[in-house]
Structure prediction request, 157 residues.
Amino acid sequence: MTKNRLFWIAASLGLFLDHLTKFWIVQTFRLYETWPLWSGVFHFTYVRNTGAAFSMFTGAVWLRWLSLLVSIALMAYAWFGSRLPRWEQVGWGLILAGALGNGIDRFIAGSVVDFLDFRLIQFPVFNLADVFINIGIVCLLIASLQKVDSKGESDRK
Prediction:
């Protein structure tokens, strides 16, 4: 685990924070209860999602297996692969945190706990696992841009 230490730290910390917040929501809220933090803009709203992003594939049992497969593949990549650059370690680690966080929910409860509710833009309710996956993607984009810069190449022609 020392080879890609930032990967394991990002994955562990992300998974912990995701499940800590979900635990708090489940213990504090009734299903569909909402607390406005900034009324009409941002609320905590407890919902359960049996699908994927934007409730696509609602009720699809195969999603839990996809989460498991992605998680195993990412752990194998970090464990058996070469040492990854810093941004890639953090990016893949956060993506693992999100896949594991939502995957564990799907295996245990058959649905994912969502609670971050941006009403100003009518965005679907989501959770920290979803946030970590998106931040992970941004980290991977940064890593890919650094590879281009380190080669002295540029896409701006």
